[in-house]
Amino acid sequence: MTAARSETRSRSWSSRLSGWISGLVPKGQWLPDRQPAYVASWIYVFGVATLAGLVLVIASGLVLTIGGVTWWHTSSLGHFVNSLHLWSVELFFAAMVIHLWGKFVMAAWRGRRGLTWLTGAFSFFVSIGTAFTGYLIQTNFDSQWISTQAKDGLNSAGVGAAFNVMNFGQMVLYHVALLPLAVLLIVGWHIVLIRRHGGVPPIGADVPEPAAAGTADAAPATEREVR
Amino acid sequence: MAVFPPLAGLAPLDAGFVHWGFINLSVPNVLVIAAMLVVFVLALVVPFPEDES
Hints:
Number of helices of chain A: 9
Distance between the termini of chain B: 53 Å
Strand content of chain A: under 5%
Structural class of chain B: alpha+beta
CATH topology of the largest domain in chain A: Cytochrome Bc1 Complex, Chain C
Strand order of the largest sheet of chain B: 1-2
Number of helices of chain B: 1
Structural class of chain A: mainly alpha
Strand content of chain B: 15-25%
CATH superfamily of the largest domain in chain A: Cytochrome Bc1 Complex, Chain C
Largest interface: A-B, 15 and 13 residues
Radius of gyration of chain A: 22 Å
Distance between the termini of chain A: 48 Å
Radius of gyration of chain B: 19 Å
Oligomer: heterodimer
Number of strands of chain B: 2
CATH class of the largest domain in chain A: Mainly Alpha
Shape of chain A: globular
Order of helices and strands of chain B: EEH
């Protein structure tokens, strides 16, 4: 009876999902409290600063949804939260670009980390699209100017039929729902890959191939080797 | 929208543009890019605090 129940549990979708989630990264690597020696560098701070900026962007954006897109025109509080949203985006992008420069000169795609690099680059591009749709919903002359210029540019690139940057309602939903969700999913995937493969070792360091995720020996190979 | 009183005499500002061939950037954008490059170089050369433990 017990064995049959155990087998039923192992075949259930929730059990398989649980196993898949726990196997995404090596055991103990979801929130590690130790890192390889080479991670003790300021350049690694900028990835975390990017995440901090993203948290601020989402939080201030959620507050803005309470007052709506025109709130900042008529309320000093709305103006403050709108500015908080703008400057958290500035922090987010500045930290992300410095993070990108650092990873580029480190050739951080080495050691089967190509997908980590790609998801990082893709999150950058999707974030740019999200920021641009934010320009379109300022409800001022600036957003009118930008939307008409963007419309011409997108039409000349042949993608104007897919969406309309002068459709205010469509751009609001792109900015507050579709694109932020895409950014969060890609950034989440990026973080899982970092936890799965560990930070890239310095160029020329003698390290073995990264261990496969979910294997018995949990920590990424680079961490075991360099510590 | 009311302007913060100490800045009332300053707004709106026109800091100008930097033209270099086909590149056309506002001065504030140039300053931000320069600051990011400075921060990047500092991140490479400034030693990271050692963990006491």
